[in-house]
Design brief:
54 residues; single chain; 2 helices; elongated; mainly alpha
């Protein structure tokens, strides 16, 4: 068995986090600071939801 202990530089992603991040890197990639269009408005809503999720 190999145990990897050097998580200072890189850390494996939890699969649910990885899936959520990939959605916003490939499909929903609006700028949350640009709310004059739907892409930005949806990004802002996603950020607010993420901040409230534990």
């Amino acid at each position: 068995m190999v145990v990897y202990l050097d998580c200072n530089a890189t850390t494996p992603l939890e699969p649910r986090v990885r899936d959520a991040v990939m959605k916003y890197m490939t499909v929903e990639f609006g700028n949350a600071g640009s709310r004059t269009h739907d892409f930005g408005a949806r990004a802002k809503q996603a950020v607010q939801h993420a901040r409230g999720t534990k």
